Amino acid sequence: MARITLDNLAHSYNPTPSSQDDYALKELNYDWEDGEAYALLGSSGCGKSTLLNIISGLLMPSQGRILFDGKDVTRAPTAERNIAQVFQFPVVYDTMTVHDNLAFPLRNRGRDETYVAERVQEIAKMIGMEDMLRKKARGLGADAKQKISLGRGMVRKDVNALLFDEPLTVIDPHMKWELRTQLKKLHHDFGHTMIYVTHDQTEALTFADKVVVMYDGRVVQIGTPEELFERPAHTFVGYFIGSPGMNVIPAKVEGTKAYINGSEIALGAGYAPVDGKVEIGVRPEFARLSESEGLPVKVRRVEDAGRHKIIRAEFFGQDINIIAGEDDPVRADMTRVTFDPARVNVYANDWRVAPQGGEAA
Amino acid sequence: MQQKTTNHKAWFLVLPVLVLVAFSAVIPLMTVVNYSVQDTFGNNQFFWAGLEWFQEMLSDERMWNALQRQLMFSGIILAIEFPLGIFVALNMPKSGFWSSFCLVVMSLPLLIPWNVVGTIWQIFGRVDIGLLGHTLEALGIDYNYTQDTISAWITIIVMDVWHWTSLVALLAFAGLKSIPDAYYQAARIDQANRWKVFRFIELPKMMGVLMIAILLRFMDSFMIYTEPFVVTGGGPGNATTLLSIDLVKMALGQFDLGPAAAFSLMYFLVILLISWVFYTVMVNLDKKGM
């Protein structure tokens, strides 16, 4: 186990980067705490796999350092870093048995056979494959293969971190849930540092203690699932997390009030004058249809999602989504929408502005 | 239950294929069967001979010797072309200009007509004017494929290796290219050495195409005719008289139609048998997971 420090780290696939846009991963400083489970969340091409490959040593960063427990490993090859990685597609050695697959990393490091056999048994028990050790890996299903690659990673006791690169992409939906639960349990029981790359918010939020949201090569927010939900630091976090995502509406902010096309909206706190592109963001969960107060909207569609209803409304060409409870009434005369003032966030140039007098509890 | 519709007119759709196969394969083959059980003295007069020709051929040392030479030839070229082809594929650039360049250069021998290949090597190896033959002679090495058995064998084997190793390399390369990067990355994480990467990642992933390549190269080399015929004409003596060369000598040189037909059928059956055994073994190995 190790604490992983990223020091001024940045990477460009272009050997002579001329502008910020050339960087697939923009400058980043962060400490990954020992024994925590992290999720790296972002859409395709946001730089999350680049970051993962830099940590695992498959890629050399163009600037900055990476340290394991304070030791600089920026130039160390993958094998020396003692990390384990589970890839998007299951990587197993087809012609070997499950047992030999699990034993492979230990045998390559010249451990003696009694130790190997003992360790393989332990791991097989951890991943629930004790009765399959004699089978060839080739004939197994994708989920079993993914478990093998996971086990191959954990078989080394001194492994510094377990990295997952969208490991559940090719797994059937019902197995996804089971594997994720098992991963969480393994993390809980053995306390490996885990970094889990995904573009699936559900996976990220259910798996991780801390979620690192990336957008356009930049880490836009690091926080617990709750923080990401309640106080998205960037409009991207707002609409990427949540289903549907946060409503982001251009507005003018003055003190404790916001104005949208002349309509007044109450804010939960006061704000100093803000410059640039000003928007307010409010999650559909904190918007409510009403008969008499709030912004006048045109309700276009109501989708019943089972446990709740999603109301798709429009306000002067601007989409507003509202989540209403299954039993909340939606009537033709309800043509206005109100927001919970305490849940309205203010954004300037896509970044969240802290209210005056600090955050509300 | 759904009513099954019967429409005999549908047979007409299959008819063109049946006619085509009949004329391209079944009828010529049956003609050969017809020759193999009869004897003729010309004038289109045929006499029933039963299995006589087959018995004669089976007890004829000439055919056994040709078969022996043929097996040796196929065995040697397979043993050289596969390791060499795989080695070349492993060392080819994986992408970019040089990758395309290698692919084009390696395809060139495959595009040359067989008798041209034969002619190239026939001239190349000549002691008086050939670059290879003359150079070897100048170096004091005794090389003369028209008189020396070993030289003749080396020439036709090197020629076949030159002509066909590319095919193995190209197929192996296609197999290698289909391996996702993640496998190599996993191997690095697992600290597998170069040999283990080859043995446990590359070879298993190439197995499918290599199987087809072995089958193709075996059948092709077992039926080889043009190139050795152009270079050595089966000589010196009978040293490089392979099965098909012997067959042509018998059928067209001596006009022994009956024995040649019996020979052809047995030749055909041998290829069929070996290919079938080979295929079955490979498929079973594949099922068991090597």
TrEMBL record, chain A:
Keywords: ATP-binding, Cell membrane, Membrane, Nucleotide-binding, Transport
A single cellular component GO annotation: ATP-binding cassette (ABC) transporter complex, substrate-binding subunit-containing
Molecular-function GO term, any one: ATP binding
Pfam family, one: OB_MalK
Residues of the ABC transporter domain: 4-241
InterPro entries, alphabetized: AAA+_ATPase, ABC_transporter-like_ATP-bd, ABC_transpr_FbpC, ABC_transpr_MalK/UgpC-like, Mo/tungstate-bd_C_term_dom, NA-bd_OB-fold, OB_MalK-like, P-loop_NTPase
Recorded family membership: Belongs to the ABC transporter superfamily.
PANTHER family in the record: ABC TRANSPORTER ATP-BINDING PROTEIN, MALTODEXTRIN IMPORT ATP-BINDING PROTEIN MSMX
UniProt name for this protein: ABC transporter ATP-binding protein
TrEMBL record, chain B:
Alphabetized UniProt keyword annotations: Membrane, Transmembrane, Transmembrane helix, Transport
Domain (ABC transmembrane type-1) ranges: 67-278
Localization in the cell: Cell membrane
Primary localisation category: membrane
Topology of this chain in the membrane: Multi-pass membrane protein
Transmembrane segments: 12-37, 71-90, 97-124, 150-176, 197-219, 265-285
InterPro entries on file: MetI-like, MetI-like_sf, Sugar_ABC_transporter
GO biological process: transmembrane transport
Gene3D superfamilies: MetI-like (1.10.3720.10)
GO cellular component, one term: plasma membrane
Protein family per UniProt: Belongs to the binding-protein-dependent transport system permease family.
Protein name: ABC transporter permease
